[in-house]
Amino acid sequence: MEHDGRTGEPDKRAFRRELLGVRNRLTADDVRVAGRALAERALELPELARGRTVAAYVSVGSEPGTPALMDALRARGVRVLLPALLPDNDLDWGEYAGPDSLARVRHGGKMALFEPSGPRLGPDAVTDADVVLLPGLAVDARGMRLGRGGGSYDRVLARLERAGARPRLVVLLYDTEVVARVPAEAHDRPVHAVVTPSGVRRFPQG
Questions:
Q1: How far apart are CA 23 and CA 20, in angstroms?
Q2: Strand ranges, E, within 63-198
Q3: Residues 6+ apart with CB under 8 A from 178
Q4: What distance in Å separates the CA atoms of residue 198 and residue 176, rounded to the nearest whole number?
Q5: Span 66-86, pLDDT tens digits
Q6: How many CA atoms, within 13 angstroms, populate the side-chain half-sphere of residue 45?
Q7: What span, in angstroms and rounded, lies between the C-alpha atoms of 65 and 39?
Q8: What's the rounded Cα separation, in Å, for the pair 134 and 116?
Q9: Please, is 104 exposed, middle or buried when counting C-beta atoms within 10 Å of its C-beta (0-12, 13-18, 19+)?
Q10: What stretches of the chain show up as alpha helix (H) in DSSP?
Q11: Which co-factors does it depend on (predicted)?
Q12: What would the pLDDT profile of 19-45 be if each residue is shown by its tens digit?
């Protein structure tokens, strides 16, 4: 998928619609199979082998599946942090203690999310992570990530920067979502690597 890389929100919105349209045509089996392959590829990352704390997220709908990866990390003894959406779109964090530790939460008219049901650790808990797994819709050859547009992970990345934290930033995508170029703005930060069902690609800063 090519894209001309012009900046600006209208352009981002059109590109997001295009990418979401492709995802929405995936079947539940497609998502499940891709999620298993994604977990296998991600677990080959040295960063995840060494990491003691990993900030992850629970995939929803047609997003590349994360449950298999979360369970595999936890089985390795990794502390897995999961986000909980706050009213201002910032993220709080809680610890993943297995599938039974998740609660389905609907935020207004938005899609229902699965969030940790245990104690909240505060938005700054993410600064303890060795690796932050990021959702997204696409990433380009520079490592620039296109998110869904809610701004939650922009806040996370800004918080990491303010704290002087330097976790490895890894985005989880389908193979077709690694593209030539995505629209980027001055505040956008590149990731270190992308994991897709077929493998891992690293970027210059990774």
A1: 5
A2: 79-85, 91-95, 102-105, 113-116, 131-134, 138-139, 145-146, 168-172, 193-196
A3: 138, 139, 140, 194, 196, 201
A4: 10
A5: 999 999 999 999 999 999 999
A6: 31
A7: 8
A8: 17
A9: exposed
A10: 9-24, 28-42, 46-50, 67-75, 152-163
A11: Mg(2+)
A12: 999 999 999 999 999 999 999 999 999
**CA angle (48, 147, 63) in 5-degree steps:** 65
Mean pLDDT of 95-110: 88
Distance CA 131, CA 116 (A): 18
Nearest to 157 by CA among 193, 117, 129: 129
Question: Which tokens is 194 given?
Answer: 């992308």
Confidence tier at 3 by pLDDT (50, 70, 90) = very low
pTM score of the predicted model: 0.90
